[in-house]
Write a structure and sequence with these properties.
single chain, about 180 residues, alpha+beta, 434 Repressor (Amino-terminal Domain), Jelly Rolls, 2 domains, three-stranded antiparallel sheet, 5 helices, about 30% strand
């Protein structure tokens, strides 16, 4: 089990226990199948960013607290130096780094994402809010509903993430900036 995922799962379980929320209630409030939620808490299954947002909201904490175990502290600005974001490996070949994690009350979540080419088709995800992707290096294929688009360095897409979507690397490692404005 990935150590970072284990720590996130442990924080979720601990906060849920402190608040006296059952796993059934948490799964239902987050719109997650109970069996899947149990695997998230056990650290047996990667937790999609959309589920992390939902879980953090139900627990009344900032996403940063789930990722790092610490609450954000900055109220007027937040500088994150190159390579010092909070890194999370969602699954092999897909890593993201939160680059505004220390700002209290963020209304958007900017993330640097690095993806490696993979075999097969990535799982589609959905979440609320709005999403913006800007390709920094390489090429990505974004599947959005029934359509796929190939984007190269300098290209961007802004979309409604309630549509099933996924990003994958094309021809080599790719990096992109994603900014998610999650509905509160």
């Amino acid at each position: 089990m990935d150590e970072n995922l284990r720590q996130i799962a442990s924080r979720i379980r601990e906060l849920r226990d402190i608040l006296g929320i059952s796993t059934e209630e948490m799964a239902q409030k987050c719109g997650i199948a109970h069996d899947t939620y149990l695997k998230y808490e056990a650290g047996e299954l990667d937790i999609p960013i959309s589920a992390l947002y939902s879980i953090a909201s139900q627990l009344g904490v900032d996403l940063t607290e789930l990722l790092t175990g610490e609450a954000p502290r900055m109220t007027t600005h937040c500088i994150v130096r190159a390579g010092h974001g909070v890194a999370v490996e969602r699954y092999p070949g897909y890593r993201f780094s939160s680059i505004a994690y220390n700002f209290i009350g963020r209304s958007m979540e900017p993330l640097l994402v690095t993806i490696e080419p993979e075999d097969g088709t990535p799982a589609l995800v959905m979440h609320g809010g709005q999403e913006f992707n800007y390709v920094l290096e390489g090429r990505i294929r974004i599947t959005l509903g029934k359509h796929s688009y190939e984007l190269s360095a300098g290209d961007s897409i802004y979309f409604d993430p309630r549509l099933p979507h996924a990003q994958s690397a094309v021809g080599g490692t790719a990096r992109f900036l994603t900014v998610i404005n999650e509905e509160k």
